[in-house]
Amino acid sequence: MLIQPRDRLMPGKAAGMDIVLDYMKKNYDKQLTVAQLALMAGLSTNHFIRAFRQLTDKTPMAYLLQERIKRAKQLLFSSERVKQVAKEVGYRDEHYFSRVFKKSEGVAPASYLKNRHIRIAVLYYGLDDYLMTLGLTPVAALSYRERVSRHYVLPKQNTREQEIIRLNGSRLNYEKLAQVRPDLIIGSDRLLPGEMLESIAPTVVLQHTDLVEQQLSRLARILGREQQAEDWVNSYTEQKHFLRMRLGERDVPPAVSFIRVSSEFCRLYGTSNQTGTLLYRELGLRQPHSLPEQTEAVDFEISELPQYRSDYIFLAVDPTPESRQRLDLLLSSPEWRSLEAVKQGRVYSAGDLLFRTLGPAGRMWAMSYIASRIGFRDDRIIHTNTGL
After folding, report:
1. Is residue 368 a contact partner of residue 386, using CB atoms and an 8 Å limit?
2. In terms of CB atoms within 10 Å, which end of the chain has fewer, N or C?
3. Helix, strand or coil for residue 121?
4. Comparing C-alpha atoms, which of 317, 301, 310 is closest to residue 349?
């Protein structure tokens, strides 16, 4: 049967179908009947079924099942029990729900997210790192090229990078995302997904946290990857404790600045972000002089720079000509040249450090990179020559 385009429906009928579709999306957990929906659309039952199929290529009950399964996948990601998921999507009997779900997806609901063949797209920076740390490769993820001047793929992840479709986070290509046919899309509350994503695959939104171990362990429980998460946490904890022990050998921990230059600002980052968490909370380094505690970031004028004294500076620049111009102004200023860290040659490129520290493997790499630049060298630290 050829599917006729929507505009072939009479205007009144199309409006009635819009009401029905919206109602079904919002009330998938109710016991809906075809007769009830036809009455809502103002059509006879037979006419309604034909019009519905013409519009959606599905029968009303098949469409309702689709909405229930999509919502069930989202709820399963939130770690709710199968019994509660069944109830929330309109099934009173969890065993019947499990049979319906397995018939639709080929696997029982309790095992769905633990299926290593599940196709997951991730739509925030660092989430690709989380999945690969757990031994999974996303089918699609955001590109870093538009956000940083240099982005380097970690050696252990390089072989899987070619399997990932990279998307521009500023101008998301929905058609390109749909072409990879994800079973699930994972986003972040830092970059809320649009309604278009729901038409591609069930979408869940993770609450952002700078506590990488906590986020990794949560994802591992959901995806059945607890051992991989435990291995990473053990390695990270060992490396962190070793570096803090080395720091304890110094009379005073060094003060470290992380500065980002964009087309609009010069920004000094504090503790309340992913990079600050690594520098000041986990490694125990000191913040620059005069930077308030518990600060996410401070935008500063070049004339204010000398008040933020530090022993080391990590400097990042956004990948735009305007950012380079602002950087040139900063580097040529007398305020910059007056800094002790600059005089001592203790200024290092931060590259993509701000984004790399969003994920587990990236954070471990960043810890080693920072430690090597401030004078900690040991065989237990993994050194990676990336040209940063």
Report:
1. no
2. N
3. strand
4. 317
Phi, psi at residue 239, to the nearest 5°?
-65, -40
Per-residue pLDDT at 9 exceeds 80:
no
User: Which amino acid does the sequence have at 72?
Assistant: A
Q: Which two tokens stand for residue 60?
A: 């009303």
Average pLDDT of the chain is: 88
Distance CA 27, CA 71 (A): 11
Task: Report which of 320, 292, 285 is spatially closest to residue 308, judged by C-alpha positions.
Answer: 292
> Any alpha helices (H) in the chain, and if so which ranges?
11-26, 34-41, 45-56, 60-77, 82-88, 94-105, 109-112, 127-133, 155-161, 174-179, 195-198, 212-223, 226-247, 274-276, 321-331, 334-337, 340-343, 353-356, 360-373
CA-to-CA separations, 323 to 77, 238, 273, 275, 317, in angstroms, rounded: 40, 38, 22, 20, 6
- Spatial separation of the C-alpha atoms in residues 98 and 110, rounded to whole Å: 8
d(CA 200, CA 209): 26
Can you tell me which residue has the tokens 């994802």?
Answer: 219
CB 287 within 8 A of CB 259: no
Average pLDDT in the 65-79 region? 90
Determine the Cα–Cα distance for residues 286 and 255; give it in Å rounded to an integer. 4
Output the pTM of the full model. 0.84
The rounded distance, in Å, linking the Cα atoms of 155 and 160 is 10
C-alpha distances (whole Å) from 351 to each of 145, 160, 224 are: 11, 22, 33
Q: Which residues of 173-206 are buried (b: 16+ CB within 10 A; e: fewer)?
A: eeeebbebebbbbbbbeeeebeeebeebbbbbbb
Q: pLDDT digit string (tens) for 18-39?
A: 899 999 999 999 999 999 999 9
Helix (H, G, I), strand (E, B) or coil at 11: helix
